[in-house]
Amino acid sequence: MRHVILGAGPAGVIAAETIRKYAANDEIVIVGDEPEPPYSRMAIPYLLMGHIGEAGTQLRHGAGHFEKLRIDVRRARATEVDIEQRCVKLTDGGPLAFDQLLIATGSSPVRPPVPGIALVGVHPCWTLKDARAIMQLAVKGARVLQMGAGFIGCIIMEALAARGVQLTVVEMGDRMVPRMMGPTAGGMIRAWCEARGVTVYTGTRVESIEAQAPLSVRLSNGSHVPADLVISATGVQPNIGFLETSGITCLQGVLTDEHMQTSVAGIYAAGDCAEALDIASGKTIVSAIQPNAAEQAVVAAMNMVGRKRRLKGVTQINVLDTLGLVSTSFGDWRGVPGGQHVELTDRSADGGKGRHLSLHFDGDVMVGCNSVGWTEHVGVMRGLVEGQVRLGPWKETLLADPTRLMEAYLACAQGQEAHAHV
User: Fold this and answer.
1) Nearest 5°: phi and psi at 404?
2) For residues 66 and 75, is the Cβ–Cβ distance under 8 A?
3) Less Cβ crowding at N or C end of the chain, within 10 Å?
4) What residues have CB less than 8 Å from 173, skipping those under 6 apart?
């Protein structure tokens, strides 16, 4: 049997290794469109900081790792999937026939429609090729303007700050990390960054980038900002365009069931391009984080070799370190219609970092939360949201004092777990 895996990122590699573990004689082909050995994009900020070299970004470090496992890694890009002929058309000629197919093509940066976005000195920060270009320009004292202050943008910002650049961040939303944080939390993150020398504009757009020496960036607030380097970090989108005529159902991503199988039997999806059930909201989402990608890859691979495995569901999980300030977001942090909500903010806590905690409930279940500077409760918050733990009278306790999360978890989650095993 031939298993073809489109995508050489974490999901693709984990799936290939899992298949090999349970199918010693099957043929496995990974198709990736970058010239480097399979690597993790999440390691690129550490490369920019100088904490690791390029070899440190690689997913597997042993010499001949894939050859030893008899996994064929090919450099090409999929252009079409033919579900009738059970083959993939590739840029290197193709077609490549498959018995089982895994779509793990990940995502790509959104290119905003800004005049000048293609100029020399304007880069996304997504590939090793991007990282090499950024490291040449982001030298100490260089003027760097970053478009976007979302989750990925804040991670990139951390790496740039470590390089000693003069950093300006421009975010269209009314606060930093708007898809992860409410107004209070986003405002606290902004204040923290500004106190550390980062210029932050929120509610502001980049209107054009002009090819001067240096680049001149015109903002919607009327400012003109000089920049030696402009980085576009305005979000990503799943790489699913090649599936448009395939007959495989796609919404935001490739729609999957509890086995990570798509609408076509024998074709699966995992990682940043896959759309799976969010256990907190009951809706399907694309959850572009590596832990979810890894779990989805194992589930898909097990089913590809005939060993039934179900995905318990994904949760929107974000833990972010922004210049030393840790913030978190779990589940439906905006809350649900008719649900109850409690917030606690102490701007003077923890030596001036401040602390913020926001909890949302649907009945007696905590469906979402976010926090700033509340690191001791990260695991508990995730456990309560993912476990859909019924809090009973403890919900009223948390509404009165949200800091008692640990007590609520120990009283409710462990008791329900014990009952489930009776």
Assistant:
1) -90, 30
2) no
3) C
4) 149, 179, 186, 202, 203
Does a structural domain hold residue 83? yes
Sheet containing 274-277, strands listed edge to edge, beginning at the edge strand earlier in sequence: 254-255, 274-277, 284-285
Which phi and psi angles does 414 have, rounded to 5°? -70, -35
Amino acid type, 259: H
Cβ of 303: how many Cβ atoms within 10 Å? 22
pTM: 0.91
SS3 157: helix
CA–CA separation, 388 vs 400, rounded Å? 20
The answer to whether residues 162 and 230 belong to one domain is yes
Number of domains the chain contains = 3
H-helix or E-strand containing 296? helix 290-304
User: What is the DSSP-derived secondary structure letter of residue 95?
Assistant: -
Q: Tens of pLDDT along 283-322?
A: 899 988 888 899 999 999 999 999 999 998 887 888 999 9
Tens of pLDDT, residue by residue over 174-231, are 999 998 999 999 999 999 999 999 999 999 999 999 998 899 999 999 999 999 999 9
Residue 39 three-state SS: strand
Residue range of the domain that includes 282: 2-108+237-304
